[in-house]
Amino acid sequence: MKRDKKRVEGEVWGEAHLEDYLNFATYDGTDPDFHCLYRAYTRMNEETFERFVALFRERGRNLDATNLQGQTLADILRDHTQAQAYLEALQQG
Question: Which long-range contacts (CB under 8 A, 24 or more apart) does 10-16 make?
């Protein structure tokens, strides 16, 4: 569950593609909101993730959702040296 690397650049993320990332199911009891955020973090560059988080907020989703170990995505990102922009996106307004 570690993504402490630069994101591959160049992929185009339209609104429909971002919407798709709101709908991931889980099968192990993980909160679906955490799962969606984590998948977005591991697959999106910083700018796209910021757009996704704004959409996530607009939909009333839970940015403080936790994984099975009780960690939020922000908790995890604090340990990732290249995740500052992602963490700031989660903490905005």
Answer: 11/45, 11/48, 13/44, 13/48, 13/51, 13/52, 15/55
Tokens of 90: 């989660």
> pTM of the predicted model, to two decimals?
0.83
Nearest to 56 by CA among 21, 25, 87, 30: 21
* Six-digit token string for 79: 């340990």
Q: Which residue has the tokens 């757009």?
A: 51
77 pLDDT exceeds 90?
Answer: yes
End-to-end CA distance of the chain: 26
Contact 71, 91 (CB under 8 A): no
d(CA 41, CA 48): 9
Q: Where are the domains of the chain?
A: 29-91
Percent with pLDDT over 90 in the chain:
69
